[in-house]
Amino acid sequence: MLYRVIDASELPSLVSAFLETYEVIAPVKSGMSHAYSTVESFEEIALDYTTTITPLKKLFLPVRETLLTFDTETNDVTEYSEPVAPRVVFGAHACDINALNSLDLVFRDGPYPDPYYTARRNATLIVGISCMPTDTCFCHLWGSDEARFGYDLFLQDIGGKYLVSISSVEAANILEAACSPREATDEERAEFRHVTRRRQEAFNKEIPDIQEVAMLMDAFHSDPFWEELGGRCLSCTACASACPTCYCFDIRDVRTPDGKHGSRERVWDCCMNPQFAVVAGGHNFRPDGRNRVRHRMYHKLNGFLATHDRMLCVGCGRCVRACKANINPIEVLKFFERKGADDAE
Ligand code: SF4
Ligand code: SF4
After folding, report:
1. Can you tell me where the transmembrane regions are (predicted)?
2. Ligand 2: which of 248, 268, 271, 272 to mutate, judged by most atoms within 8 Å of the beta carbon?
3. Atom 6, ligand 2: residue with shortest CA distance
4. Taking the CB of the first residue and of the last residue of the chain, which one, N or C, has fewer CB atoms within 10 A?
5. What share of the chain is helix, strand, coil (3-state, %, to 5)?
6. What confidence tens digit (pLDDT) does each residue in 110-148 have?
């Protein structure tokens, strides 16, 4: 990994350089919050944002997309692929980069890469930026507060300057041409350590730091807590839509009114949808909120870890804000904390 320092005043030049060749997608102000959106200039970007409403996944796994089209009279099938223009996501936080790294494991790096996702991922440069946690952030508990890979440039704010981690030649060439990157001085390296420590100290200390979560998910699998937590669920699916790592989808064949043509569509779906686990014959494997909420938390905090060696939750806190019934991983951590206190009595 190569590290260089640039002045904050050089960021507009960097964005302008990207704009010459790439579509630039960045956090912008959207009502009371922020959202990723295509921008035309540096001035539109809000780099001091907290968390965007919707996650990065929508850029790689759209809410709805056509996979193929077909003709029922000729039996012809046409593979469908939308051209993806080169683009840059400018200003992604570490948790969102880590979420993308998890999606890569599922859609790009497995035995059957998803060509639609992979085409979008390959066409996209990622420029990350450091942030400070809000009250609902707990990325540090899973080690997602730092992006070790999955980006092309990462900008660490060290006060009027950025320490830039460079991990791709393509982005390095643009940085070199647009800015005057220089080697970090000892003072700048020391400042990097200070800001990292300040960020660690800024996390909400009321969120319990439970390290053995995956094991506890197994140990308390049958606890009445899941009935209480799941019983509140409204099945609105807002948690999964907001989550940067929920990736389940449904496949539907949609035909024209005359039935002669059609398309195969992929649309977001999720395990919080009451119909999600219905199989032929009408049996529902997860018929109630208890089973659905427990399943979702289990996948986030245990199941994915077993198969991919990392938590599927990155602690971004989006579901904490999205769920009107206060169902989220923090509530699970608090439950484990209470259990620990009960056992100690
Ligand atoms: S489960 Fe919640 S906190 Fe974890 S990654 Fe998803 S939205 Fe973020
Ligand atoms: S857990 Fe919350 S956000 Fe998710 S479906 Fe249930 S009520 Fe909606």
Report:
1. none
2. 272
3. 233
4. C
5. 40, 20, 40
6. 999 999 999 999 999 999 999 999 999 999 999 999 999
